[in-house]
Amino acid sequence: MSSGHVTKRAKYKTSVKDPGTSGALRLNEQKLMFMPDNRNSSTKLAVEFKSIQGHKYTKEGSNKPPLINLSNTQGGSYILSLIIIRISMFAGIF
């Protein structure tokens, strides 16, 4: 079994209109973990993938922010907004 993981900048939201808590989203083969930038924040998340029963996401090309809404087996949900950093290939040339 591989020990690979992916880490992305994200915001954890309690609702779609919530501004969210900034932090890092880390995914490995078994679970996803969200750690807020503010270490004193109580907004920490560790969810095993086997407890996720469904997902919704914003379509590519939409004018809405990229959101992922994961629903769990207990009827709750986790809303994550991925932070996309676009870097121009011409940055630093001029």
From TrEMBL:
InterPro entries documented for this protein: Tfb1/GTF2H1
GO BP of this protein: DNA-templated transcription; nucleotide-excision repair
Ranges for region Disordered: 1-23
One term under GO cellular component: transcription factor TFIIH core complex
Compositional bias (Basic residues): 1-14
Annotated protein name in UniProt: Uncharacterized protein
Organism name: Acer negundo
Lineage: Eukaryota, Viridiplantae, Streptophyta, Embryophyta, Tracheophyta
